Automatic annotation (TrEMBL):
Pfam families: AzlC (PF03591). Signal peptide: none annotated. This is Branched-chain amino acid ABC transporter permease. GO terms for cellular component: plasma membrane. The chain crosses the membrane at residues 12-32, 44-64, 70-91, 129-152, 158-176, 188-221. It comes from Clostridium sartagoforme. Keywords: Cell membrane, Membrane, Transmembrane, Transmembrane helix, Transport. Belongs to the AzlC family. It is found in: Cell membrane. It is a multi-pass membrane protein. One of its GO terms (biological process) is L-valine transmembrane transport.
Length: 238
């Protein structure tokens, strides 16, 4: 027990920035779910079982329109494809997690990944329990915030028209943040161009999946060419 308490105390301060971001975003999610007719139980269940941030906002659309399982599957895979790379990069850190490993894999969101990847536990603190509590705390923040949002939606009466735009706003903020933090804007420009071309060809109702497929294909090709050019340059230098 003492080992777990030490790990919790070490993990908690690192998750405070995540709490400040998660609590407001998850409250918005809870309010949105409530506005679509889904109560606290469904909201909590989605947050506990899905726990996928932006994909949960997209899932609201899946719940309120004619269900298309293939579209939902592809859309979710595209949105969260980055988690494949997260998982690969965490193989070494999680290899000795034992019985905690399945939960650590399940709870590996963007924010948890950034902390676990960049922070090591203090001396004398168990690695696996340190990472477990980081994961658990962030998971709890999201679930609690979504419940608060759902309850607020029941208590506070206001016009929720346009609340769906929170998902668009979320992606815009992420895009701007990535643009500012990276000097190389090639990937962002490719994303914009592929989206515009797909919109023109397929229209507003069907451009998203073709755009995402095109983005992944073009990025894969350009990345391969960049690696080949770098390899040739290194050989020339040698």
């Amino acid at each position: 027990m003492e080992e777990k308490i030490k790990a919790l105390k070490a993990a908690f301060p690192l998750t405070i920035p995540v709490f400040t971001g998660f609590i407001f975003l998850s409250i918005a999610y809870g309010i949105l779910m409530n506005s679509k007719g889904y109560g606290v139980g469904w909201t909590l269940l989605m947050s506990l079982v899905v726990y996928a941030g932006s994909a949960q906002f997209v899932a609201v659309t899946f719940l309120t329109t004619a269900f298309n399982p293939i579209y939902a599957l592809l859309m979710t895979l595209m949105i969260n494809a980055r988690h494949l790379f997260y998982g690969i990069s965490m193989l070494d850190k999680y290899k000795d997690a034992g019985k905690l490993k399945p939960y650590l894999i399940f709870g590996l969101c963007d924010e948890t990944f950034s902390i676990v990847c960049s922070k090591e536990p203090p001396e004398g603190v168990s690695d696996k329990w340190f990472r477990f509590f980081i994961t658990l705390l962030n998971y709890t923040y999201w679930a609690v915030g979504s419940v608060i949002g759902s309850l607020l939606g029941n208590v506070v009466t206001f016009n929720t028209k346009g609340l769906d735009f929170v998902l668009t706003a979320l992606f815009v903020v992420i895009f701007v943040g990535q643009w500012k933090s990276n000097k190389d804007h090639k990937a962002a420009i490719i994303g914009i161009l592929c989206s515009v071309v797909s919109l023109v060809i397929f229209g507003p109702g069907g451009f998203i999946i073709p755009a995402m497929i095109a983005i992944i294909a073009v990025l894969s090709i350009t990345q391969k060419r960049s690696e080949e050019e770098q390899s040739l340059t290194e050989e020339g230098v040698q």
